[in-house]
Description:
The complex is a heterotrimer of chains A (about 240), B (about 550) and C (about 325). With about 240 residues, chain A is mostly helical.
Amino acid sequence: MSDSQTTAVQAAAHGHDPALLHHFAEPQQQRDAASLGMWWFLATEVMFFGGLFCAYLIYRLQHFNDFAAASQSLSIKLGAINTAVLIGSSLTVVLAVNAAQRAKRNLLVAYLLLTLVLGSTFLGIKAVEYTDKFKEHHVPGPTFHFVPERMEGHPEQPPIDQRHAEMFFSLYFVMTGLHALHMIVGIGIFVWLLVMAWKGRFTPSYNTPVEIGGLYWHFVDVVWIYLFPLLYLISRHR
Amino acid sequence: MAMPNGPQGERENYLNKEYGVGSWLLTTDHKRIALLYLMSITFFFFIGGFFALLIRLELLTPAGDLVQADTYNKLFTMHGMVMVFFFLIPSIPAVLGNFLVPMMIGAKDLAFPRINLLSWYLYIIGGVMMLHCMLTGGVDTGWTFYTPYSTAFTNTKIVEAGLAIFVAGFSSILTGLNFVVTIHRMRAPGMTWSRLPLFIWAHYATSIIQLLGTPVVAITIVLVAAERTLHLGIFDPKLGGDPLLFQHLFWFYSHPAVYIMILPSMGIVSEIIACFSRKRIFGYNFVALSSIAIAVFGFLVWAHHLFVAGISIYAAFVFSLLSYAVAVPSAVKTFNWTATLYKGSIRYDAPMLYAFGFIGLFMMGGLTGLFLSALGIDVHVTDTYFVVAHFHYIMVGGAVMGYLGGMHFWWPKISGRLYPEGWARLAALIVFIGFHLTFFPQFVLGYLGMPRRYYDYSHMPEFQVLNVLSTAGATILGVGYLLPMIYFLWSMRYGKPAPDNPWNAAGLEWKSASPPPTFNFDVEPVVTWEAYNYEELDAPHPQEAPVVR
Amino acid sequence: MAGNVDALFIFLLIVTGMVALLIFVCLLFFAARYRQRAHVHAEQIEGSTPLELTWSIIPLFVFLAIFAWGAVIYFKERTPPRDAAEVYVVAKQWMWKLEHAEGQREINELHIPVGRDVKLIMTSQDVIHSFYVPAFRIKQDVLPGRYTTAWFRATKPGIYHLFCAEYCGTQHSGMIGSIVVLEPAQYEAWMSGGSTGPLSVTGEKVFAELGCVTCHRSDAQGRGPNLQGVFGKPVLLQDGRTLVADENYIRESILDPGAKIVNGYKPVMPTFQGLLSEEQLNALVAYVKSLSGAKPGDGSGKANADAAAAQGSQVNE
């Protein structure tokens, strides 16, 4: 409370932008700090997912047959649609940032809304996929059971080690689950941005939240761009 | 300079500006947050120390007679977890770094003051979870919580402890994030990279490790928790997993974590040695770059913890070689500190004694690291008391000695009071002697073959003499660690008021008042001098370095 | 081995001791010579790149020498001689179960003859343990789900400590035992009692009981590869890779047969995951190894395998 008062008093005294926090010398410094902060945060996120990708790739090499067979049970169709949805949402985010910079409030609100719709669509489709896995008993746990699909032209398939198939699905759920969690956080951020945009808080000189929120959203997309081929696509047909 | 006066006629500063619990718990002032951290980590230090005391008492006699085996296992586990995650990792960065990083570079605050406060709350939440976990049963896996013991066999609260560490880890990440952005973006005009104090370089390197290492242990904890609660097979061989993968992921963070503890200490020692030998540090560029080199190489040596774990011979060769690579910059630092003394004008105030103590203890830790990196020797001494002694020399001898040195050096700035010099020198001596007495016998024990984490050595009574020595030393060490807390507290009330620059030290933080005002500087500083300009400060007719241009 | 490790240790003690002494003397000398009372004005010295390079590069070369020495010792420690006597070790919370290739079983105690190379083939039933004999300067973690190996040669009769060095739970410090090194004659006397027959013969029985012989025949007609002479030789896999058949490969082929298919064979073998105890697995591995050389059980194993193959027993249990 007293903090914001001091800020306001100082801002008035120096004739500064009210959005400029007291400890920054100028708006540019504040913007730079915020975006550098987000970039470094994303670097930690890369390491966070990096550990998982590393585990996945090592086990994939070790238990190649089991992982390839289990990977075939994922729906390429749903995965591909989701990839398209996410890439589309990245586009609307870029357009939203652009609208914020040009102070087009209505356009900004529209693009933020569209992003939210696309993000929710992604989560919806993911939920459908999870439900299918649940019905097929592919969710790791006591009910887990995996029977590989018979492939034409490959009469001799090695027997599947259930434990390694289960490990594939464990990693699948952890990786896509954490990604979905990031999507949910992203949606939360974008709802907040939407409210702020609705109230007309963003101006050409103050739109850093849209920009760094967008950075986060793009990062979450990029994670999916790696998840999709690694989990769904590679070595589908041997 | 005209100073506004506070309620008691003192000039207004960050301590007396506002009173009341709310003004502390909701503060975004980096200096107040530093004090919040100081209180919290001191609390955890004494909890961890209490566990250590019980461990040493148990080992006084070969038989397991003081506590039960399970209790002993919990003691060393909780000692490790509390000391590593709730004391050593936050210690210097979150207290002295928080207080000094903005002041040293001439900023009003860290780049993200609210995130700074959030990071303290995360630390407290993690700490409360850890306390709750300890009070309701604790954990018995060792702080390394190796799988599959941790995921499938122990019946203690590994998930809760893991979550506590996870939350505290985020606190550490946010601190690192704040420092990196602050050092990049908040430097005062004229404060170029080559004018940064070495303390800042050390914190920059530390922050990079916090940012890039901590998330890996976070995801590892997530996987351990998932395996333990949902029986997902990731690390347990019964479920098709590989327990070595856990060890790789764990040490990928936990080895660099050692540098999170020691690098800031090295930064402090550089400041102290320069000040008390009245000289610019010898080879500034090399000392600064060696911090970065340690951070980078530190990420490439993790598997030297796995030489007997079942990795291939060739992997072991690579990691042994890289471990020697990281030893070079550490050696360079030691040589440079020594060379800085050459032709200096040396004073022996308490901080300098701690800095000397640091060099003595760190050197022992570093040199025994060369033994452990040698593959043939590591096979024999790993997982014995040799390793225990080695890492205590680095993480406790080195890091805590540096931390105490820094506390003494900057205490006048932080509290505005002087501590009793005689007591401080005595404490430095007691810590130094107590430390050697505690841990040197453990090197011998290790080479004789006593494995670590042994509760009962009644079949090896030949180890008792050395254990008794170690326990005796631990008592002295405990006194040495208690003393500073007592006289620091005493000085807050009875200490003489400190001048703004009691050591006549270089560095922007000394150009501010003691204690500093809320935004650190009454006038925004402009830097026109190089770091460690002791020549100018000690010139026969010292000219006040101009603050404003 | 202990001698080599100690030699390097003493060398390191001397080198690091000299460095420590040098720094210590410098510190003390500078501290005394340049104390403020004696040396009022500090002389500013910026630094010296040649000096920095000197004290970076010289230590680096010393480190490289230490590395090389340590690596040589390690390489020897990790490479068991081919003709070593073999002991199978199964660790569990909190005891060591040891079985000689000749069939003698021991708990927390290992009798070996002086002067003979002994190779340990180790696995764990539960968590990670570590086989540590300080007197021999050897230590090797023992992991569940795979084999790790170590070897040593005792040079003096006596009783030596055996420790578990990797924390393994409540009674970790109780998981200790002893290595009893005997004179050859004493050892022979000790060996003469209490054996259930060589491990490879036990393995041969298991091999027959499980019906492995139906497919793994001693000619080229079986549905599975002929196991004669496989151990220690390179194996060409279906995916084009080649690997040397070691204990871990045999173990994996029994427990996860689909993982590495031998070129020219179909993936038809069922898994034995969860159906075998660690002791049975060890026996099977010992048997397969006996088909490749001068290990006890050779020859007769082949005959029995053929006989069992003729009966065509079912793959069961």
